[in-house]
């Protein structure tokens, strides 16, 4: 009788959104036969992610107006696209952008033209509406929330190792030089030595073994590279800090939190503004199948998903703004440099969770934009409503991120969304036990090859440098050319390709 009167369990509401992996897998199938609709453009760009959009923007700025940008998804933006739940926007992937430094003038120019920054008395003044509002970050550890993501030192040895790592990062900045984007830093034998070993092995050699430091550095690698410290190179591990504001140990009076730009929809804010001027030049729902180069031009065979029919595009030149492993499949005759590369990509899962009411919070620092739990497999969650200026109460909307091991790619693509929803909830409820009962809906987005992993010997590979140059009538523009995936790398790669093609 007691069982019969108990409430029925809450049925999970949600599903897959955002990406269509089966479209990309058409590359594995045989090419279509029969008549194809003939299309023409001066310049073709395959891929409407940040690099492809940046390339199109640069070409149009330089007077190359007859362009066509093709993408297999219905919306441009690649990893920087948005979703909507409960009447509010939220990110599907990339969700913030650090303020660009002096090595990223292309990114700064874009942000200036979008009205996000202006020069005043020789200094940059940022529109504070777009800077991450305070409080920015917090970490759940030892039963309570702490401000910032670096775990508090649990003893003098941990604090000493924090300080030792800060010194090593500062030394690397001073003696080797690091830049964002990385193409702006001179590659030396010192960089190559770091690139030849894993970050974990380098840390071991330095005697940096404190669990809290190692957890934090592992978290940083998983956050930017989708892989842990024992997978990425020591160059990548140091680049994370040395190309930005360094690493600051507790008690460092010079430390200041790195400002970031963020929006409810994440970096889709930028992607949408890059895509808008393209108008009819943007052709979504197109699956590129084969690229063939001749003495007079290039030919692209594509599949129009809306019409369920092939298209044959003729152009003078083409930009492959796609992951390098996709470019290799597309080209009828891939160059030797492309065939020599064996890039690795991290699968990634993003979940947007719409709640009925606020969560009960634990003691310590207040709810922040970025909320991370020590030891969690989930990277944490951001509050998609954190940037709201409207004080009217609204249901919470959270975006959680989970990088997966490469061996889990098959499960990500084959297992039902409910499996991954339960996986995420099981992790998140250790910090928020009331989350499952307050969940209204969970929408998940999967990226089978979300980001390039800067494993040892990737960044310094000669093949990557070769592909940065125009190959006849074919140019490559993608963050893969830097060995890892962030906005600054993708945008700069696109701009540089546009400059070379229009020269």
Keywords:
21 strands; 30% helix; disordered N terminus
Describe the structure concisely.
This protein has 17 helices and 21 strands. It has 503 residues and is of the alpha/beta class. The strands form 5 sheets. Strands 1-20-16-19-18-17-9-10 form an 8-stranded mixed β-sheet.
What does this protein structure show overall?
- By secondary structure, the protein is an alpha/beta fold.
- The protein is built from 17 helices and 21 strands.
- The strands form five sheets. It has an eight-stranded mixed β-sheet with strand order 1-20-16-19-18-17-9-10. Strands 2, 3, 12, 13, 14, 15 and 21 form a seven-stranded mixed β-sheet that branches. Strands 4-5 form a two-stranded antiparallel sheet.
- It is globular.
- The relative contact order is 0.21.
- Mean pLDDT is 94; it is low at 1-8.
Helix content: 25-40%
Please give the number of β-strands.
21
Give the overall shape.
Answer: globular
- End-to-end C-alpha gap: 81 Å
Low-confidence stretches: 1-8
Give the strand content.
Answer: 15-25%
List the helices and strands and how they pair.
Blueprint (H helix, E strand, L loop, with lengths): L1 H4 L8 E3 L4 H4 L12 E10 L3 H12 L5 E4 L11 E4 L2 E4 L4 E3 L6 H9 L3 E4 L2 E4 L10 E5 L2 E4 L8 H20 L13 H7 L3 H7 L5 H15 L8 H9 L17 E3 L5 H8 L6 E2 L2 E8 L4 E7 L4 E12 L3 H7 L5 H5 L4 E11 L14 E4 L6 E4 L13 E7 L5 H6 L2 H12 L6 H4 E14 L9 H6 L6 E3 L10 H16 L1
Parallel strand pairs: 1-20, 2-3, 2-15, 3-12, 9-17, 15-21
Antiparallel strand pairs: 4-5, 6-11, 7-8, 9-10, 13-14, 14-15, 16-19, 16-20, 17-18, 18-19
């Amino acid at each position: 009788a007691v069982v019969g009167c108990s409430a029925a369990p809450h049925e999970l509401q949600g599903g897959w959104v955002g990406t269509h992996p089966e479209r990309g897998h058409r590359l594995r199938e045989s090419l279509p036969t029969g008549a194809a609709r003939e299309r023409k453009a001066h310049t073709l760009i395959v891929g409407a992610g940040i690099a492809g959009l940046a390339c199109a923007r640069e070409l149009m700025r330089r007077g190359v107006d007859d362009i066509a940008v093709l993408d297999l998804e219905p919306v441009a933006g690649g990893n920087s696209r948005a979703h909507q739940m409960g009447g509010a926007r939220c990110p599907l992937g990339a969700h913030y952008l650090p303020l660009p430094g002096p090595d990223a003038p292309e990114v700064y120019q874009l942000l200036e033209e979008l009205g996000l920054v202006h020069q005043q008395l020789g200094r940059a003044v940022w529109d504070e509406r777009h800077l991450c509002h305070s409080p920015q970050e917090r970490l759940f550890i030892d039963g309570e929330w702490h401000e910032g993501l670096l775990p508090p030192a649990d003893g003098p040895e941990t604090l000493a190792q924090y300080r030792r790592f800060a010194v090593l990062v500062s030394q690397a900045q001073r003696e080797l030089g690091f830049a964002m984007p990385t193409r702006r830093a001179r590659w030396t034998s010192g960089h190559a030595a770091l690139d030849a070993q894993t970050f974990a092995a380098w840390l071991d050699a330095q005697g940096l073994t404190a669990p809290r430091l190692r957890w934090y550095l592992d978290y940083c690698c998983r956050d930017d590279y989708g892989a842990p410290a024992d997978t990425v190179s020591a160059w990548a591990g140091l680049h994370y800090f040395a190309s930005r504001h360094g690493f600051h140990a507790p008690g460092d009076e010079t430390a200041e939190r790195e400002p970031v730009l963020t929006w409810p929809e994440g970096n889709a804010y930028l992607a949408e503004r890059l895509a808008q001027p393209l108008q009819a030049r943007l052709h979504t729902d197109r699956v590129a199948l084969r690229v063939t180069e001749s003495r007079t031009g290039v030919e692209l065979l594509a599949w129009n998903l809306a019409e369920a029919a092939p298209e044959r595009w003729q152009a003078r030149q083409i930009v492959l703004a796609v992951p390098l492993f996709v470019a290799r499949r597309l080209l009828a005759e891939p160059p030797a440099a492309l065939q020599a590369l064996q890039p690795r990509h991290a699968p990634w899962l993003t979940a947007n969770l719409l709640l009925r009411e606020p969560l009960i919070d634990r003691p310590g620092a207040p709810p922040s934009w970025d909320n991370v739990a020590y030891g969690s497999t989930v990277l944490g969650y951001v509050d998609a409503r954190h940037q709201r200026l409207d004080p009217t109460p609204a249901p919470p909307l959270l975006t959680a991120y989970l990088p997966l091991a490469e061996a889990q790619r098959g499960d990500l693509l084959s297992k039902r969304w409910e499996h991954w929803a339960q996986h995420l909830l099981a992790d998140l409820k250790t910090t928020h036990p009331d989350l499952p009962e307050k969940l209204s809906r969970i929408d998940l987005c999967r990226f089978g090859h979300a980001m390039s992993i800067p494993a040892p010997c990737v960044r310094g590979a000669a093949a990557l440098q070769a592909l940065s140059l125009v190959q006849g009538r074919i140019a490559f523009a993608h963050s893969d050319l830097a060995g890892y995936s962030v906005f600054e790398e993708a945008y700069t790669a696109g701009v540089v390709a546009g400059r070379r093609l229009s020269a």
